[in-house]
Amino acid sequence: MLDAISKSFFHTLAGSASLKRFASSYGMRRNGGFARRFIAGETLEEAIAACQAIQARGLFLTLDLLGESVTSLNEAAAVSRTYVGMLERVTASGIERNISLKLTQLGLALDRASTVDNLRRILEAALPGGFFVRIDMENSPFIDDTLEVFETLWRAGFHNVGVVLQSALHRSEADLKRVNALGARVRLVKGAYKEPRAVAFQSKHEVDEAFVRLMKTLLSEGTYPAIATHDPKMIAATKAFAAERGVAKNAYEFQMLYGVRRDLQSALAGEGYGMRIYVPFGTEWFPYFMRRLGERPANVGFIVKGILSDRGAS
Ligand code: FDA
Question: Span 2-309: which CATH code?
Fold first, then answer.
């Protein structure tokens, strides 16, 4: 219940233009910007440096250019060209070739066919260099279209792409069967969005139970599953089920967000599990940042401290 209230509160704040302006002027300052804990930088150079540090800790990565809900098809096409340019620069830097993106960045809220074209352009550029492309999952009104776009390109022969399913949603069990039948890769998450009762579980307990159920199906029937959570209980359940069923440590991986539970990230990698870090960067960091606060309101204290010390310094 509290989880739903906190998500809803931060969802409302995320729509505030004045809060966005305030956050934008302080959040990513080079010295002590409070959003830097969760955002790897505003430029690709900064993000690549963060990725190099992550690799030096023995972790894998996926790089995400922040942005969602573009308002014109020209903008969506421009984002897809930016992604293609980014692939070249990632290749030149020598970091791991793995990216995540959101389809509303590529025009999903405007036109599905154009979104397919935009994603195809990225996948074509990604294929020769051996990139893997993960399509993040957004809020429930976009799920049908996201899966349709994904399947269209999967059936066209692009198998360097995977999706995300959210345990909070009632539909995810059926969606998992559909994606497993293709043999495609799934990242399992709890779900970051405020969703109505009609489509989603509202209590943490129910979301967690669904996560464990989906995790078991994924480890039994899926293709190189990604278990994306910071929750020690979900991680323990995954390790126990994998050990019981003889699923090798290299047949699946854990994933966590940049800046969250670094201790646990290193501990899991030290135990020999694959551990991938989701590394977001770019100037459009505000909605992503607000979702992180909604997941753990205790982070607000940390941010207020950052703002006060930042103001004191200037
Ligand atoms: P839960 O929220 O129950 O938290 C468990 C514990 O983890 C907390 O008690 C705390 O210790 C720690 N924790 C969690 N969040 C924290 C935070 N922000 N700051 C500090 N500590 C925190 N969602 C989505 O809808 N679509 C997507 O495509 C993705 N993609 C994605 C990729 C990756 C790699 C990850 C790890 C997560 C996502 N998510 C996502 C987000 C996901 O749905 C979910 O909102 C967060 O992972 C938080 O849920 P947990 O499983 O960590 O559990």
Answer: 3.20.20.220
